[in-house]
Design brief:
Helix content: 40-55%
CATH class of the largest domain: Alpha Beta
Number of domains: 2
Largest sheet: 7 strands, mixed
Distance between the termini: 39 Å
Number of helices: 12
Mean pLDDT: 87
Strand order of the largest sheet: 3-2-1-4-6-5-7
Strand content: 5-15%
Low-confidence stretches: none
Shape: elongated
Order of helices and strands: EHEHEHEHEHEHHEHHHHH
CATH topology of the largest domain: Spore Coat Polysaccharide Biosynthesis Protein SpsA, Chain A
């Protein structure tokens, strides 16, 4: 991990605020000197957190951004990203304003990005089982379910804890996220992962400890699971089309398509013959059983081969160094040269 003296990049911290007045000043006071700028985003907070920070916080690094309407955590974070981009910051760290995330971890989050090993770093509260004693069971179960579907829809099979909002991202990668397309509320973190996957960005899962005190979470896992599952299915379909048809039609594509066709045929045909046999009392012939079982088994083998390929295809080389170089080259080009590109 790099120390503050080794960090030449301008690090920005984005803090989305909605009903966080009770914890915000303590959180801001614990942000270390390695941070260049802090953006407190008042997401139309009914407690007036933004005005409270302006009147009570004398840290010159703090800038308050106001959303005229409540956009949710995603909309607030993207407003903070936009402000940090305009101010020329290099790395953006997102920390919730409720005090659950320890600012002392900021150097750990930005180090893999600075060294060129990652484009995006995300916290993982599930690395140490001993640290989960204070986490409600519904959160444990919900995160397990959502993590599996996150793997399917994003292609990042090594990640866990998708609802963890403690993240860091390089500015050049953030600029390519297309903010207007990203989900603005609690699906924000997962939707970002989906779009990072389309970029081929390297995502690093950083072990961290969960902190639960008297803060209240606005996220209800049991309520958002149906919404999340629907959006995961939509993103999974997009990812397959973009990755395996539009960009690279390969053997893995054929494995997936054949696997789907054969599995569906075997399953539907087998269920139909079973129903007819149950209704008529006539056993299905050995040939009928094989006609259902063989496509089903072969289809499952094709799907397993596809998913094995997909797991091995997780991005391993960070893209932001190349994006930074391209941006630097473009900044030195004349307008006439840019027109020729």
């Amino acid at each position: 991990m790099l120390n503050s003296q080794q960090m030449s990049e301008k690090i920005a911290v984005v803090v989305p605020c909605y009903k966080t007045r009770k914890h915000i000043l303590d959180l801001l006071g614990r942000i270390g000197p390695e941070v260049f700028s802090i953006y407190v985003v008042d997401d139309c907070c009914p407690e007036g957190t933004g005005h409270y920070v302006e009147s009570e916080c004398d840290d010159p690094r703090v800038n308050v951004v106001y959303n005229s309407v409540n956009l949710g955590v995603g909309g607030a974070v993207m407003a903070g990203y936009g402000a940090a981009i305009n101010d020329g910051c290099d790395i953006f760290v997102k920390i919730d304003g409720d005090g659950q995330m320890d600012p002392a971890l900021i150097p750990s989050f930005v180090s893999p990005i600075i060294t060129g090993d990652a484009d995006y770093v995300k916290g993982n509260r599930f690395f140490d089982p001993e640290s989960l004693s204070g986490m409600p069971f519904i959160r444990l179960f919900g995160n397990a379910v959502l993590s599996f579907f996150t793997k399917l829809s994003t292609g990042y099979w090594h990640l866990f804890d998708p609802t963890n909002g403690y993240t860091a991202i390089h500015s050049e990668v953030a600029k390519h996220l297309h903010f207007h397309k990203i989900s603005q509320r609690y699906f924000f973190e997962t939707d970002v992962l989906f779009r990072l996957g389309l970029q081929g960005a390297v995502v690093y899962d950083l072990p961290m400890t969960a902190h639960y005190a008297d803060e209240e979470s606005n996220l209800n896992i049991s309520a958002v699971i149906p919404e999340f599952l629907l959006k995961h299915c939509k993103n999974a379909g997009k990812r397959f089309f973009y990755r395996y048809i539009l960009r690279d039609f390969s053997l893995a594509t054929l494995e997936f398509l054949m696997g789907i066709v054969l599995t569906l045929f075997g399953g539907i045909y087998g269920a139909t013959r079973w129903y007819e046999s149950a209704q008529g009392g006539i056993p299905v012939s050995a040939g009928g059983v094989m006609l259902a079982a063989l496509p089903l088994l072969v289809g499952l083998q094709f799907l397993l081969a596809f998913f094995n390929y997909d797991m091995l295809a997780v991005p391993k080389r960070a893209v932001h160094p190349a994006l930074v170089h391209r941006s630097q080259v473009a900044s030195h080009m004349t307008n006439k040269q840019k027109d020729l590109i």
